Each structure stands twice: as structure tokens, then as C-alpha cells.
Amino acid sequence: VVKKPMTLNLTDAEMQALESLSAEKQMTKTAVLRQALRLYQLINSRLVIGEKIVFEDVTGKEKKELIVL
Amino acid sequence: VSSHERVFLYDRHEKKVIHAEFIQGVDHDFAKMADDMWVTYLATAKAAAVPAGKAFENPQHAHWRWAKLVEIAGQMLSYPTFGIAVAGVPQGLMMLKTDGAFSRFPGQERLPIVEVAFLATAPWNLQSVVATPRFAGVGTILLRAAVETSFDLGFKGRVGLLALRQAETFYERHDMTCFGVDSKKPMKYYEMTTNVAEAFVREESA
Fold first, then answer.
1. B149: nearest Cα among A38, A17, A40, A24
2. Looking at chain B, which residue has its C-alpha nearest residue A22?
3. Closest CA to A1 of B6, B3, B85
4. Other CB atoms closer than 10 Å to residue B57's CB: what's the count?
5. How far apart are CA B30 and CA B9, in angstroms?
6. Complex ipTM value
7. What does each of the 206 residues of chain B score in pLDDT, given as a tens digit?
8. Rounded CA gap, B157 and B204, in Å?
9. What is the DSSP pairing of strand B114-121 with strand B159-163?
10. Full-model pTM
């Protein structure tokens, strides 16, 4: 599969968040951003058909809706 | 978006290596063809086996409908699909889930893995269906695609899956670690480590 390069300009805070995720997941920054795109696409596809994204605590008793812009 | 490349299978009937087509991004028509051909083949095989008093066990994945799965996956990047064809005839199909699954190895629980959500080979390639299966290597090529996807996404070759009972020995042959029966589904969970994944890709490239 052919990949196309792109340049990305990030603020310090955004870069810090990216580096933190990169370290935690032991993934390159590019890999983290590609995963973020996949997840955003997946979430958006569910939202556009009227579904909600909900977080559940470990006991399964408390649920919080995730607001996605 | 789909891409095609050439791979090799061993034809047990003709006793020679043949060219096959590896498809990344399976479309609806190909998936539907697999459904139609595989269901028809199984029905015919069963109809021949039962009156002859031969044991016949349906593949555990016989009820999967690939056209539906491909439709659900749609254009979602998180659910890539793969197929193998010989002269246009589907020999195997796989759907991965690339997000939301994590390693079960102690200390690696926050590291993402590629999950093999569905993997099936055509019934005429299965020893449980026919005495001499036609093409060898379909499952291995698909599993290798899962490993390569994991490397490509930065997951370092980590691949996990819940195995159908009939496929357990296949995954064990590829040195995947068995974690026993899953807590939610009555299937054994297998995972491939980075070291095994690297060796697998090296071996298959040789």
C-alpha cells in the first residue's frame, strides 16, 4: 500500500500529549496519529447514524456519555 | 480502496506451486462469491458424505456470511479485510480489528494488538471436509498479513485472537501463546509475541 507524506504543525501542548502517548503505547508518533485517525473515523461513523459513545466504569454500574465534536 | 498482489500456494492436486492473488480491501462481490461458493460446496459435500456413512463435520465458521461482514466493515480503517483468490475463486478471507484490543501478556496490558476477528479458508482447502484439500498455505498467508499489519501500525507484530476449536492446532503450530479459555466467550485466546512475529515474517520471507 502506497503511503503519502504530510507535514504536521503542532503546539507544544499537542506535541507533549503525542509524546506521552507514544511513550505509553511504545509506538512512534506517526503510529499514534494513524491510530487516532482510525478511532476518530470509527467514532464519527457511529455518531452520524445517531448512536452515542458511552464510557462504563469497571463495575458496569456507572455510564458517562462521551461528547465528540 | 483495494490492492492486489501475487502470492504463492501449493496445489496438492496438481502437486505444484501456483500463483494466487492476495487482496487487501475485499469488496462486496468477492465476499458474496465466497459465501455462495462455500455454502454450495459444503452442502454438496455433506449430501455425498451422509448417505455413504462417512463422518461429516461442518467447519465452525460455516455460518459466517462474508458479504455481511464486509458491509459492516465498510470503509472503516479499523476493520481491514483481506482475501486470497485463485483464478478469481475465493480461497480464504480475513477481517482484522486494529483498535480497541490490547495484549494479555503480563506487563503489556496497555499495548495495542491487532485482533484477528474472522479468518476462514474455503472448505475445499480443509482436511476436515475433504480427504485431500486443494490449496495449502492460505491460512498462513492470511496470518502473516495480520502480523505485517501489526508491524505497519506500530504494534510490533503483536496479534491476538479467539480461536475456533478446529483452528487451535493451526495457531499453536505458529507458536502463538495460549491463554486458556476466554472469560467472556467459550473459546481459547491466543497471542503472538513480537519475537515470534519477527521469526514468522523472517521464515515466510526466506
1. A38
2. B154
3. B3
4. 12
5. 19
6. 0.82
7. 678 899 999 999 999 999 999 999 999 999 999 999 999 999 999 888 888 788 788 899 999 999 999 999 988 999 999 999 999 999 999 999 999 999 999 999 999 999 999 999 999 999 888 889 999 999 999 999 999 999 999 999 999 999 999 999 999 999 999 999 999 999 999 999 999 999 999 987 77
8. 14
9. parallel
10. 0.91
CA-to-CA separations, B108 to B40, B85, B146, in angstroms, rounded: 44, 36, 19
Torsion of the alpha carbons at B54, B93, B10 and B55, rounded to the nearest 10? -10
Question: Alpha helix (H) ranges present in chain A?
Answer: 12-25, 29-47
Q: Which three cell numbers stand for residue B206?
A: 526466506
Contacts of A39 in chain B (CB under 8 A): 78, 99
Provide the H-helix boundaries in chain B.
Answer: 28-49, 66-73, 138-152, 168-173, 194-205
Separation between Cα atoms, residue B3 and residue B17, nearest integer Å: 22
Compute how many other C-beta atoms are within 10 angstroms of the C-beta atom of residue B200: 21
A30/B contact by beta carbon, under 8 A: yes
Helices of type H across B13-166: 28-49, 66-73, 138-152
Chain A residues in contact with B24 by the CB 8 A cut-off are 1
Calpha distance B68→B93 (Å, rounded)? 13
* 3-state DSSP assignment of residue B24: strand
Q: What gap in Å lies between CA B108 and CA B164, rounded to an integer?
A: 25
- Strand, helix or coil for residue B79: coil
